[in-house]
Design brief:
The protein contains seven helices and three strands; from the N terminus they run ααβααββααα. By secondary structure, it is mainly alpha-helical. A three-stranded antiparallel β-sheet has the order 1-3-2.
């Protein structure tokens, strides 16, 4: 499915989000520090369906952020890795990760009794 974005006049943040936005794309990108097979990626993301991971991988590949390598073996082996262009997103992902750590700390501090009840 084609994503709609006005490349000539749209906001730069919108351009970034059109590539890495969504629930699973940043998680996929964080797991691609080194080449990884599809099955290992699925195991690293147990809350995402294989179909969703596949769709997100296709979009990331179409945008030139990741590279898919198919090895001529039986059974076929497929690995995914960040392209050089994709590696340029590492600082963005690192800042997102740092922000997530602080957010989780804040939430834990606000509701310590909720953690005890769970």
């Amino acid at each position: 499915m084609a994503r709609k974005y006005d490349w000539k006049n749209g906001c730069n943040v919108e351009a970034t989000l059109s590539v890495i936005g969504g629930r699973w794309k940043p998680v996929i990108l964080c797991n691609l520090g080194e080449p990884i097979r599809f099955g290992a990626l699925c195991r690293a993301m147990p809350n995402a369906t294989q179909r969703m991971i596949t769709l997100q991988l296709r979009e990331l590949e179409a945008d030139g952020v990741i590279k898919r390598t198919v090895y001529a073996e039986v059974p076929p082996r497929v690995e995914y890795e960040l392209t050089e262009f994709g590696r340029s997103l590492e600082p963005v992902l690192e800042v997102m990760s740092d922000w997530g750590v602080e957010f989780k700390k804040r939430k834990r501090a606000e509701a310590p009794e909720a953690d005890d009840a769970a």
